[in-house]
Amino acid sequence: xxxxxxxxxxxxxxxxxxxxxxxxxxxxxxxxxxxxxxxxxxxxxxxxxxxxxxxxxxxxxxxxxxxxxxxxxxxxxxxxxxxxxxxxxxxxxxxxxxxxxxxxxxxxxxxxxxxxxxxxxxxxxxxxxxxxxxxxxxxxxxxxxxxxxxxxxxxxxxxx
Length: 160
Description:
Largest sheet: 2 strands, antiparallel
Distance between the termini: 36 Å
Number of strands: 2
Number of helices: 7
Helix content: 55-70%
Structural class: mainly alpha
Radius of gyration: 24 Å
Oligomer: single chain
Strand order of the largest sheet: 1-2
Shape: flat
Order of helices and strands: HHEEHHHHH
């Protein structure tokens, strides 16, 4: 009994880590999931980059320094550039649309959105997948709604 429980936890871990959504439950081919994770890791890995000068950088430290240097130059300001103007006229937002934008989400709408999502999708920045929110809905719904509404109000969010 304990072994099968641990096996299902391991299988769920690798399913989530691989980012694959399965049509059929119960496929416990963890070797396959390992291969998918490895493939994704390799695809997202940068082995080398070419600088503007044509030099190839291959060490992780040089790649990191070059990337930081590139984006620091790219996004830094060289002083005042004047007011930004749109190349087209932006129509004003009407009162009805403005009221809709300012409206705080209701519990019913939050629940509807959460339960429309795939329970097996990858976890968010908080480390919890949608399945957690769906299975614990009755316990967490009020606190979750409060946190979401605080976000919409612009309340300062707790760190990490």
